[in-house]
Batch of 3 targets.
Target 1
Amino acid sequence: MTPADGRIVARFLPCLCFSSVLPSLLLSILFGANIASAQSAGPPPLIVTPSTLVLLVGEDYGLSAVDATGRPVSGAEWTISSPIASLHVVEGEVYLDAKSPGRATLTATLGGQSASAAVSVLTGPALPPGTVRWTLQPTPGYEALVVFQAFPSNGSSVAFHAIEWSKSSTAIVRALSSTGQQLWMTRLSSSASPQTLKRHLPPFARTFFNDEVVTNLRQILTGDPSLFASFDRPDLNVPGLPLDGNSILSRS
């Protein structure tokens, strides 16, 4: 179930809850295991995000055009190859209103450059289980290295961060919305590869808050100290914790 081409995909699984925004959409982030040689690593002049999209008749959905800076642009002209959906543009973002089943190519044109995305429309009360709702191709010349969920933040639409690597350039980070649209891109000062990717796990039974080890229960619980039971362990890192190796991770 791992795409060999390194696409980022979002699968639709009913009866599972991912967030309050998408109550029935679980985003399974996959990235390619086959690593290809990077050629001419660099952002393209124009891309459409997401790269592919599956809708139900009656649904509407937003896509955006992204330029070489990695940010959405306004002023693009949008066309669709088949009348399976109507479209309207709001502040540079195109919205599709699915009308009838079928497939079409959505194209954005700006400054003599064009880019496209594939759109499919299905009928029925819900998407079939396992349907890939959207996919996002890696930046040309790069391979997807790791994708992880962003920490929720008020006023931010970033749901995921994708790190992509290249043999001929430094790594990049792409910020993605839950709908597969790229919000921004930045280039790191160092390179990355599957061989150098390491995840440092905290020592077993340690608890973290704002990236610091919690040594006392009162650091993460508020209230009158007298309300804590006398048999509670105030030190969360002493022997006696469940041997599950779990950690609490919280960021301000």
Target 2
Amino acid sequence: MPHTKKDKNLMKTKSLLLGFLLIVMVNFACKNPSGFNKPDDSLDAGREFIRAVLDGDYTKGELYILPNDEDIRLYKDYTSFMKKRTGKELIDLKQSNIIINKVEQISDSVTIINYYNSSVKKPVDIKLVYQNKEWWVDFSYTFSGNLPIVE
């Protein structure tokens, strides 16, 4: 049975709509990784953040950044800096191990992790804070040491 012009237009419209929906779904999936759930404890959240950054998965790393202007700006500056590293440096970081020197539970909602990676071997502190039932990386702490005074 031959297709009419109306049938062909309908099929073309459906194909375009399906293609558009597919693009929207892929775009949405890239912004919200499928199956991504933040860990329930600070150590796992810290390790996952560090691993994402070492692997060059800055989009995943950003999901852990405390959502305030300063932290987001610092993280974007850091990722821009990292993207300019040589291919060898980036491969070395991706292949490196995370060595945790110390985990300091400051309170129920603040943890400091001191670590280094086997490639750079420079100790770094990251601060994790628990807000809105999630663990976040206070990225500005790495640069300022803004640990609240605990008496």
Target 3
Amino acid sequence: MCALVLAAALTGCGSDDEGAKAAASGAPSRSAEPSSASPAPTRSSPLPSPTPAKPMKPSTPAQLRACADGTCTVVVTKGTEIPRVDGLRAGPFTVTDVGAEGVDLTSVDATGFTSNLLGQRPGQGGPSTVNGLSIAVVSIAGDTAELRLFPAE
């Protein structure tokens, strides 16, 4: 029905039978070609995903212990514990969730104060900071996430 209305509309606008047949068949007619005066159409392409397709290999306990100096990049899953960074008064952190909604971390300091970092995502506008430690989510893949820890500026 829509093709017939389109064909009738094109015929009513002074196009030839060939143009109407092309419109009805879905093929472009010669009159549909862009002129040099009109800008070329732009195509929107999907943005590349910031997350790898396959889950990553989680960091080893030795790699996680290396975070104790406040500078590391590690791959975590739910339940991963990141050690306390004494010099920056932050941690220890426990990863409480990793998924499409982001990464959740919890920290309880020596005084019992609890810090919750919820829904942390790559490209969220900057890292989250607890005392002197910044934590940035580099990527999320399935139930794994790559985190970068570094001293806050």
